[in-house]
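re the bet — no i am not wrong, look at it urself. input seq straight from the record:
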Amino acid sequence: MSVLTRFFRPTNRSSSPSSAAPKLVVIGDTGQRLEGIGKMLPEVFLPILKKELGAKGIDVLVLTDSTPLEFGGDHFSAGTFILPVYHDEVVDDLYYRHLGLVEANAARRGWVFLHPISTGRSLGSKPETHRILNTVVPMPELHHDGLMFSNLAQSCSAPVTVVEASDCDPTRYNTRFIDTTTEFRGKNYFTSLRIMAVGTEVATVFMRCRPVTDGPVSVHDKDTPLDPDLLCFLHERLVGPQMPAIRNMAQKIGSKIGLGFYAHDVLPERGTGKLYLCETGLKFHDWTIRDHLEPIADRLPFFAHDISDACVHRAVRLFADHLLVPVAA
């Protein structure tokens, strides 16, 4: 018996879901299954989803293949929620073909298709993300006379370089350089905030950083030094005081792109304290930072609330509350 079958075998029910309870169908793309290439750990996220939504009376069905819902699905009523798991940075039309068929079928049958393909395509393109979200939250300007960030237009993991505006490659995604450095004990660190959001609401926020002496300006989970004093200092300085602005940013982004699970990467500007959205994407939870910081968890007062799997439970409860609003209406 597979892990997913063990977690999601119906109990005391017929093979067809009951018509009385709200329903959520989680589907993996035919090529990606349920991992979504780094979007979730199914063995962690899905049991929590099942438990938390079940407690609120929402049935959960998980399909590791989207094919059954491309044209079928007669036993699912209008109002059924469809939650696809896919990577939002792959732009090959073939990649989206199966989920696109499900989305079209959902429209015909009155299902609610979350994480629409149009949203995924937009978030997978930095220029398109900027076009959509720059109107609602601060983002680094595309045109500037000084230093510029230069990045690939379609990647969240490629190295970011800093160049003069006159040296920018116009085929790349170029924005004004935001100085995110913070000094701690005589050493400077590039910093960034990651907001894990569900629709308009914040599930958790945590800091990431790396020494300026490393060279690259981009900051990822595993770049963060295992230094409890440093991380507590950054958390107290850059997270707590910024929570009103963080919640406001998440609310505006979620209102624009709709209900879903997102990771918003934010740049805190040195000197001004202003927050700039760097990029955002579909992401159900961040287990990499949890695993990375776990060796020093007992020395991080915020770990249990902001880093551990308690964050996943909180995110899923927020998600359930959103699902129940249209059902109740």
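see?? Residues 200 and 255 are 6 Å apart (CA to CA). told u. also The longest helix spans residues 310-328. so pay up
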